[in-house]
Amino acid sequence: MNYFVTGTDTDCGKTFVTALLVRAARAAGLDAVGAKPVCCGPRDDVAILAAASGHTEPLDALNPVWLQTPAAPRAGEMLGEAAPDYAGAVRDLRALADRHACVLAEGAGGWLVPLRADMMMADLAVELGWPVIVVARNRLGVLNHTLLTLESIDRRGLPLAGVILNDADGVEDAATRTNAALLEEVAGRPLLARVGREATTLAWPL
Fold this sequence. Notes:
6-stranded parallel sheet; Rossmann fold; alpha/beta; about 210 residues
């Protein structure tokens, strides 16, 4: 089984959580790798996923589209970078999935970040057709961001594997204490896990 990992926004902890999932799957004996089909700016996230994957694949195989501009992919094109081959990226991800039992492909930015004027990250996920894992940063405002993301995933007809709540800020307040229960109550979707900044693994299988 392969998964597409998206987030409620930029810097919500997608790479951290994806690496946790890859390590958990590999510790359970599954040939799993993490990938980032589109990377913008430094390739640090790809290097983290490569390490979690046991360096079984070169960076270019895990990250077929690399834009130098640290902004939305469409912004890189607007600033003069060559138009990426997103269809080729989907083919490369499928080829990666043929070589491994499980691929966890992390998106860039949030669910609706623009890749082209006529294409969002969500459209690339639709092309892959894999179940979606939503990483949400546990803080005030995450309920609205998560529910909007889930609604958009539903509209595109993709299966939802579940939500992972990331305590990236290490803050304890009324919102962070109740967000998990409220998400399960209001969204009616599975909360796969709640992770803290010191987490080193997650339970597998999902």
